[in-house]
Amino acid sequence: MEKKIARRLEGKVAIVTASTQGIGFGIIERLGLEGASVIVSSRKQANVEEAVEKLKAQGIDAYGIVCHVSNAQHRKNLVENTVQKYGKIDIVVCNAAANPSTDPILSSKEAVLDKLWEINVKASILLLQDVAPHLEKGSSIIFITSIAGFQPQGAMAMYGVTKTALLGLTKALAAEMGPDTRVNAVAPGFVPTHFASFITGNSEVREGIEEKTLLNRLGTTGDMAAAAAFLASDDASYITGETLVVAGGMPSRL
Ligand code: NAP
What we know:
Elements: E1 13-16, H1 22-33, E2 37-40, H2 45-56, E3 62-64, H3 72-86, E4 89-94, H4 110-131, E5 135-144, H5 157-177, E6 181-188, H6 197-200, H7 203-212, H8 221-232, E7 243-246
Parallel strand pairs: 1-2, 1-4, 2-3, 4-5, 5-6, 6-7
The structure holds NADP nicotinamide-adenine-dinucleotide phosphate.
Residues 17-18, 20-24, 42-44, 47, 67-70, 95-97, 119, 144, 146, 188, 190-191, 193-196 line the site of NADP nicotinamide-adenine-dinucleotide phosphate.
Protein name: 3-oxoacyl-[acyl-carrier-protein] reductase
Pfam families: adh_short_C2
Family: Belongs to the short-chain dehydrogenases/reductases (SDR) family.
């Protein structure tokens, strides 16, 4: 039986970065199905067009804009074109991230450290600087952090540290952007996407992760989308500065 989805986001305008596949696509699809007008973006025009078509086929009001999050002009275009078309912004999900190396922190090249900071943290701050003047009262910002942010280690150590930074950024911006804007984060566990395929693609590693969860499975993009839609909606209207861990019960303390 098809699951019925509430329409909590009618009349809202939502931007999701890196939303042409994986968790970002899952989130933008869910926001759209809940009634929001959605702005799809990622680096490649062809991916943007394909995602917009998939969303429109489901009756979603979707509009596509190419945006490499570390490109200042792309970020400006994303915000200006959205405001030109819809007149406002209610929801921004900062989902783009990179994990360019699996080296230990002490052997990481400076260029890798710069890229991790730039894409995983700085680009979201700069995007929100552009977005802020256009945010409506009751708006909602959501960062996509990671379970790896709570215990950065191994092949994802430095990437994990940038995700830890997002936990702090969530608290700091919730204070700075309240009371009109709520700022929260979703911390996914392991989800078999292209990004995580170097981990979840290995059946032994995958089974090890499944065993570390209390629910004995990996997460789905739908699990992450449901959490993001909740935080974006008025159902979460008294929640700000929080990180919702969606990781099947994996340990999540700093
Ligand atoms: P994914 O399936 O590989 O999707 C990546 C998306 O990002 C694509 O749409 C890609 O499209 C776009 N993209 C990549 N670099 C970009 C950039 N610089 N600017 C704009 N768009 C960009 O990845 P995912 O697993 O869904 O990851 C999404 C988020 O979830 C990330 O923040 C990641 O850290 C987080 N996360 C993932 C997991 C997991 O297990 N998968 C766990 C915890 C947290 P183009 O190629 O067209 O740019």
